[in-house]
Amino acid sequence: MSVLIKNARPYGEGEPVDLLLRDGLIAEIGSGLDADDDTEVIDADGLVALPGFVDLHVHLREPGGEDAETIETGSAAAALGGFTAVFAMPNTDPVADNAVVTEHVYRRGAEVGLVDVHPVGAVTVGLAGERLAELGTMAASAAGVRMFSDDGHCVHDPLLMRRALEYSTALDAVIAQHAEDHRLTDGAQAHEGVVAARLGLAGWPAAAEETIVARDCALARDAGAALHVCHVSSARTVEVLRAAKAAGTRVTAEVAPHHLLLTDAALTSYDPVNKVNPPLRTGADTAAMRRALADGVIDCVATDHAPHPPQAKDCEWAAARPGMLGLETALSVLVHTMVEPGLLDWRGVARVLSERPAEIGGLAGQGRPVEVGEPATLTLVDPDAQWTVRGARLASLADNTPYEGMRLPARVVATVLRGRVTARDGEVRK
Ligand code: DOR
Ligand code: ZN
What we know:
Helix content: 25-40%
CATH architecture of the largest domain: Alpha-Beta Barrel
Bound molecules: (4S)-2,6-dioxohexahydropyrimidine-4-carboxylic acid, zinc ion
Low-confidence stretches: none
Strand content: 15-25%
Radius of gyration: 21 Å
Distance between the termini: 15 Å
CATH topology of the largest domain: TIM Barrel
Largest sheet: 8 strands, mixed
Shape: globular
Structural class: alpha/beta
Number of helices: 13
Mean pLDDT: 98
Number of strands: 18
């Protein structure tokens, strides 16, 4: 089965072209290409063709959290959001701190087949921050784990973090740190600032993030290791990253869509849908996130897609779990915050949603150019679409989207993974 995409504009540049996808590759690019009976034709008039999106940070909740999301529902959300590969965080139950669990996640992802699911292995046993997990066994397993993280928790012990970074070099892996000094955030409920003070919520200082990032950059520098900083949220973290990168440290960073758009002003509603870790910060921080993503100090967008069941969110603020859905709204939030104001063009979108995350995650077959001979792993985007977000209509099992009722620009029309259409016009293809 071949696919013929008619009249798409790769990277939103130049005249529209036809792309013929065959045997998993982009076989031909030209104009007036013909389809035979066995070819699915996609009319892509007005659409932008981009390399498939890669998300370095999702929570698929399986095993153990299937009341919030499963690998199947999360994969559907990913495909509908334009993603062709996702990295599934290990804070499941049981924790993905060993090869049995990472292989299960990997195989289940392959079985569902909508998106490449790459399990992230835990850095420490049980995410407890006390003993290193068997990173080598997870790396050597069929899942080929190349990213390790205790996400949800910070690897707080500097000696343990140093060891993890040292081992990672031999495994050609990256350590993704959830940078949060727990000693500074114990009991914290909201970004430490005027809003938290007015609402009477215990403050979460930005320094809890900045200090860990500064420390980890020094440790990564000494180990010659690759450090990835998860969900950067503070303007001053950007300056730490800028200095470390300028000094040649192997550090990369991601920002979540919600930290590009939302601020702690949203907290006045007391709606726990806005509770997230790290917390929503100030307008100055979101502005800094946008600038850093434009100038490359922040390498990529990662959703931190964090589904939660109703009982974890429909409760009082302090009891609610942190986290927001992100997979199906990421592109639209990025277009709204970065493309519309002129901070990023479609080449830039390809860079931050596909090329850079594929490089950081070590994926050879993703984030490739839209060119003949390359994998047919693509996302077709309607740049002129407008839609209203409704949590109940999202493919995720959970509905904790902070964008409920918001009108957002741009929509994913089709997603193609190695020549197979995985989503089209809002429906997944099983
Ligand atoms: O908001 C968050 N939710 N931040 C994290 O680091 C973990 C995540 C989760 O697992 O729900
Ligand atoms: Zn995290």
